[in-house]
Amino acid sequence: MAEPKENPFLDDPEAEEEEFDLDAAMDEDPEDSAKSGRAAMEAVIAERDEMRDRLMRALAEAENVRKRAARDRSEAEQYGGSKLARDLLPVYDNLRRALDAAGDANDGVVEGIKLTLKELLKVFNKHGITMVAPEIGDRFDPQHHEAMFEAPLPDTKAGDIIQVAAEGFLLHDRLLRPAQVGVSSTPAG
Q1: Where are the domains of the chain?
Q2: Does domain 82-184 have CATH number 3.50.50.60?
Q3: Which of 5, 49, 113, 152 has the fewest C-beta atoms lying within 10 Å of its C-beta?
Q4: In this predicted model, what pLDDT tens digit does every residue of 37-46 receive, in sequence order?
Q5: pTM, whole model, 2 decimals?
């Protein structure tokens, strides 16, 4: 069984004992005592108010962190696959080029390419990827289109799309790739 530790202050011969001075306490002015009591109370109230303020700030910060984490989690769920989606866009482009090169051929290979392209678009839609497919004659929109070239073309207005080189894609509401288009530069006249 362990021995109890000794209190070093009890055994210290040089330690002075502090005695309560009753005479000095009786000589205190009651008004001074009330003032010091009020000052002590005000100090306690000020400390309480400071602690309440610190607590409220800490609670607000914790709530902000919780909201930020929920928003980040939601964005990660919604946009986390954007890198993979961008990497799949060239696959779409190559399948589209293969169909364009095949022309009107109606053999099994072309049918397989069409089915593969259809399946890829179905997967895109399932994951919130939508196509930005402008038509010739639409107005150029810098939010969704990238001008690859400008050329004057009769019977068009400046800013009209005159050629679509590649479709663009959105992931939910974020642009993955703008549609690549040619734009008319016909001067107003």
Answers
A1: 22-79, 82-184
A2: no
A3: 5
A4: 888 899 999 9
A5: 0.62
